[in-house]
Each structure stands twice: as structure tokens, then as C-alpha cells.
Amino acid sequence: MFNFAERTAEKQIALYNLASYFLPIANDVSNNNWQTSQIGHNIAKHTTDNFPEAVNIKIALFTIGECEGTANKTSDFTDLRQELYRLHFEDLPQLADLGNLQLMPTKKETFKQIEKVCATLLENKIMPLVIGGGHDISYAIYKAYASVEKIITFTAVDCSFDLGAEQDKINSHSYLSKMISYQPNHLFNFCNIGYQSYFESPAAIQMLDDIHFDSYRLGFVKANLFEVEPIMRNTDFVSFDLSCVSSAFSAANAYASPNGLDGAESCSVMRYAGLSDKVTSCGIFEYNEQLDSTKQTSKLIAQMLWYFLEGFKQRKNELNPNLKACTKYTVTFDDGENEVLFYKSNKTGRWWIGVPFSISDKQKKENYFVACSYRDYEQSNQGEPPERWIKTFQKLN
Questions:
Q1: What is the average per-residue pLDDT within 17-37?
Q2: pLDDT tens digit string along 217-260?
């Protein structure tokens, strides 16, 4: 029989074991006289004499100053916390700020710390919400999933793929190739949102397509922002590189460039990530406080986090479609020889595609459900199966 008190105690012990990994947040942030409706008043904080209790915590925010693989450096993230804590939020989800991760003498040791922290949080059903230096921190978070034997879909919001060259050491521009080649493989799918063609070779774009990964150009994303919603519903780990944001909205990044998402679009992407019942970790990377003299980038990150939390609060507990509460649509191809099944939730209006696959060596087929949009259904009615269906079918069969 399940013992709730015993499980809660185990969760508390697991979180307390992480206390030594973190430095407390600055006193001028934690001791500020925040209004009762501000995040700073309601968030559980790691202070000099207190570490957050695990009871009821659903999201654990922490910061990482690791910058060995990037030109972006941030030390204590005080400005960012000030901007986040000052925001008003009604009925804040159970959120804790664990503080700043203590860096180890070597990058390898620091990444091992990140992996252990994230694995512990994931095992205890607490979402890591990470703000960091290099985008290559994503690799350590991916290894946390591997350590708990979780196969995932990883989505990067980024202006490039960060594949790098085979001989490159892991850094912000080469981590993805290390993730793809990591064994045993725990990457079911990778999706890039917002790449810019002049930053990627045609060979790299073709390679991702050949291994049935997904990529969406910046122009498509800006013109079809609603398509990000089903992408996030298929995602476990979201990693947002600020290099994907236009320098007009996020100048505190050594890799910033003129084109990219604007502030409102960045917040919408984060809201979709928070809203997804499947997303279990999220990170925002490549913030450089030394370049943030106007604090506009820290303000943007704070507002992106606000929208993520707003989406999280509105989750519908609809990880997969409840077929009894869905309307089923069948689209046939090849004169009725093949078909694609769509399901529309009567509760939320969200769409899924059923992708058939065989169970072991049996002839019986089951459906793997992939989140999609009404646009996919319209496309199918024009005689063209959606890319989501095709690529998932190729992975499963």
C-alpha cells in the first residue's frame, strides 16, 4: 500500500541532499519587502539560513554560471532575480528558487553536478527550470534523463542547430552532435524552432531531415506561431537559446544578431512550453549580465519565465487524447488503401494524429499519439500526409 507520508519524507530528504550543491540567493533579493501578489513574496527561496522544503514543490528554479563553452558569462543572476521577483502573479504554482549552482574545478565535474541535480528533481517529479550560461548545459540535462532511463523528445529554440564538427570539444555550438551520438541513445526526437538558413549548411539541414528530426525556419515560426503549441505538446525538454531572439529585444548575448523572435513571440513560445503536459524540464541559456547595462534582457527573461508559469498553471492534464472525449476524423489516401486518424479533444479543441506501430512481434497494431494542429488535418484533406505523421511512422516502424 502506498504510504504518502513516507514518500513525502523521501522526497524531502532527496531535495535536502542537494542543498550543498547550491549557493543561496543574494540577501538584497530575498529580504526585499515584496508585495503579497509579487513572485518574490510567494516563491520558496534558498537563503543563508533556509533551504526550500520539497513538500508541494512542482518547479525548482536555479541558475548556472557555467561559461567555459561560451562567450557569455553571468555570475550571480541578481538582476534577473530582481526582475522576476517584482512581477505580480495570481496563484503562483508551487515554485522554489534553489539558488546558484556551485561550479566545480572542471567543466566535466560541473556537468556531472548538473546531471545529478536534474536527475534527482526528475525522479521526484519536480521540474528543473534552469537559467544558465552556455547552451551546452543542455547536454548535461539530457544525460539526467538518460540516467533515469527516460527516452525523450528534445526541442531547442535556437537560430542554429549547434552540431559543430566531429573533432570539436563540447561547447555551445557543438553540443547537439554529442547528444545524438551519446550511447545508449535516449533521444526519440529532436526539434529545432527558429533556425536561420544562413547560419546552417544545406548538408546539416538535410542530415536532420534524413534522420527524421524536425526543424522549422524562423520565417515559418513567425508566420505560424500557433504551430509551436503542438511541437511543445510532443516535447519533454525545452531549451531556449537567447541567440534566437533579435538583438533589439535581447542584446545581452555575445551571439545576438539583428534577426530573430521578438519579445512577445519569445513569451508566447514559453507559454506554449509551460502549457504542455509533457514538458518536464526547461532552460533559458546564453544570458550575459555584463552586456545587460539597461537590464532589458533580464526583464525579457523574467517575463518569459512569467509566461511559462502562466502556461503551467493552465495545464489540462491531457498528455494523450481521451478517446472517449474526442471526435475522430479519418482521412484516406491512395484510393482508400491507407488512412490517417485524427482526434480532436471535445474539451480543449486540441488535435492529435494516431501513428500505427506493431507491438513486439505480434501482428496487432497500436496507435502512438502525436500532437498536431488543425493545419495538419487541412493538409491531409488536400491529399498530403503531415510531416509529423510520416517522420514518426518512420521512427516506429
A1: 90
A2: 999 999 999 999 999 999 999 999 999 999 999 999 999 999 99
Can you read off the three cell numbers belonging to residue 22?
547550491
Q: How far is CA 393 from CA 66, 179, 188, 356, in A?
A: 39, 22, 12, 7
Query: What one-character DSSP code corresponds to residue 47?
Result: B
Domains of the chain: 4-313 (3.40.800.10), 323-396 (no CATH)
Residues with Cβ within 8 Å of residue 170, at least 6 apart in sequence? 69, 136, 139, 178
Mean pLDDT over the full length of the chain: 93
Phi-psi region of 53 (alpha: psi -120 to 50; beta: other; left: phi over 0): beta
Cell of 54: 520539497
Contact in structure between 335 and 352 (CB atoms under 8 Å): no
Amino acid (1-letter code) at residue 354? G
Distance of CA 49 to the CA centre of its chain: 31
- Three cell numbers at 391? 517522420
Cα–Cα distance for residue pair 17/40, rounded to 1 Å: 24
Which alpha helices (H) appear in the chain, and where do they start and end? 4-16, 27-30, 39-42, 78-85, 107-123, 137-147, 175-181, 202-210, 218-223, 228-233, 263-275, 296-313, 374-381, 387-396
Asked if 126 and 58 touch (Cβ cutoff 8 Å), the reply is: yes
Structure confidence at residue 213 (pLDDT): 97
* Mean pLDDT, residues 166-180 taken together: 91
Report how many helices (DSSP H) and strands (DSSP E) the chain contains, helices first.
14, 14
CB atoms within 10 A of CB 150: 17
Considering only CA atoms, give the Rg of the chain. Answer: 21
**Bigger pLDDT: 262 vs 67:** 262
3-state SS class at 162: coil
Check whether 5 has a pLDDT greater than 60: no
Cell numbers found for residue 75: 555570475
Q: Find all residues with CB under 8 Å of 17, minimum gap 6, and list them.
A: 120
pTM above 0.85, yes or no: yes
The DSSP code for 50 is B
Answer yes or no: is pLDDT of 1 > 80: no
